[in-house]
Amino acid sequence: MNMTKHGLRLLMLHEFKLRHNASEATANINRAWGEESTRDRTVRRWFRKFRSGDESLRDEEGRGRLGSLENEQLHAVVEQNPRQSVREMSQTLGVSIAKVSCNLKIIGKVKKLDKWVLMSSMRI
Fold this sequence. Notes:
The chain is mainly alpha-helical. The protein is 52% helix and 6% strand. The longest helix has 13 residues, at 5-17.
């Protein structure tokens, strides 16, 4: 049985109000709704929010997965400044560092002498 995020958050708030700790809450929710319904770390984050007095069930801004990355976008950013770091590119594009690194490999870019170049232009 699937539970919406809002429904899971409501269950977490319920468990919090029952004065259960995060581990107990995680176990209770997973027992009732399936073993992969929520994670201990997620419940701890929500309990921390509830303890601060914020009992709203809305997610915080900036949480969740970062946006997708089109290889054309990445190629344009690399061509604009081939000396920038993966971190700078990830901030420019609004995606994770891991996503940028993975897509750089896909488009055949490697860093050589502090500059991103096509893999085929490298000499071994």
